[in-house]
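Appendix B. Worked example

We walk through a single record from start to finish. Start with the input: the chain for Reverse transcriptase Ty1/copia-type domain-containing protein, Paspalum notatum var. saurae, length 259.
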Amino acid sequence: MHEELENFERNHVYNLVEPPPNCRPIGTKWVFKNKQGENGMVVRNKSRLVAQGFYQKEGIDYVETFAPDSAGLCCLQRLQQMDVKSAFLIGFIKKEVYVRQPPGFESAKFLDRVYKLSKALYGLKQAPRAWYARLKTFLLKSGFSMGSVDKTLFLLSRGGDTLIIQIYVDDIIFGGSSHALVSSFAEQMSREFEMSLMFFLGLQIKQGPEGTFVHQAKYTRDILKKFNMGNCKPMTAPMSTNTALDADEDGEAMDQKEF
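Next comes the structure step. The output line below is what the pipeline stores for this chain.
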């Protein structure tokens, strides 16, 4: 909790103010989560301070809201994944937003004061849009061009090499034809934002001499655990090999060996 509060105060100037007339400050709450690694083991206990954005009214507290959602993955020879830490805390917001003091960390001297936000906060309706605007501005200034159809797809051409990145909310997957170009982009992003490697959309990507493979081992284990099938017997075939199928008398003849 203290680490998340430090992130909040670092990104939002510690600015407790008197609530202005007719101000309706948005409540805040703590959300706790156990973050799991690829093997399903808990690797980190997370706490996050979020705004109760469901109290915001469209047209009054915000105009538009959306989160960048990719249409697909880019599967190039060299793939990397990254997550922007506290992404929704670094987007700038234009409207004045006031939130109540975090529960358990209220100022004993100024109990009636509220925070005036200069940047977004998790839970605010406009937080995803503010983050996307911040990242898009950075990428365009860095020489990327944005997809004309998919606005979460960005392309950089340098010499004979190409770099493609795909955005999904606060996660980024990127790949290119040049290892140097991929590494340069990773370093550039790390200088601008606090980054970490992660799994993208619950997918794991394995690269080897045989090629690049995308799998969902962790997701599969979670589903089996959810339905108490963790000890079930694995099958190499997707259906029983002893099931008798009726012939389709009106259908075209097929080569069973090909099937």
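Two observations about the output. The helical segments are 2-11, 127-141, 179-192, 217-226. The radius of gyration is 24 Å.
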